[in-house]
Write a structure and sequence with these properties.
single chain, mainly alpha, 3 helices, about 0% strand, elongated
Length: about 110
């Protein structure tokens, strides 16, 4: 197995663990919290990006050079995943910096 495939698989596993932690955070957020819509948007965008990257990984051949169609499809999927992840990161930043989700309420010393 090529090292790039191993890196992609390790990244997919790390993202799955991060999504699990995010889902637990979402479940702890009260339904009436003003950040609820942004949190759901963040979850949807990031999990969609993960799915797009996973599909992109499945379309890449392991032992032969990809054909032109496969290469363009992989590029398109990777670009789509990147854009989804960028918008998801923006929603996550809003959760932390605008709504204060995940921040300690204790004053710093």
């Amino acid at each position: 197995m090529r090292s790039s495939v191993r890196v992609r698989l390790a990244t997919a596993l790390a993202l799955a663990l991060a999504m699990t932690a995010g889902l637990l955070d979402l479940m702890a957020l009260p339904l009436e919290h003003p950040a609820q819509a942004t949190a759901q948007r963040h979850l949807l965008l990031v999990s969609s990006a993960w799915c797009v990257f996973a599909v992109s990984l499945l379309f890449r051949p392991l032992r032969v050079a990809p054909g032109a169609t496969q290469a363009w499809l992989a590029l398109g999927l990777s670009l789509s995943g990147f854009l989804l992840l960028a918008f998801g990161a923006y929603a996550g930043a809003r959760l932390v910096y605008e709504f204060g989700v995940g921040q300690s309420r204790r004053p710093s010393p």
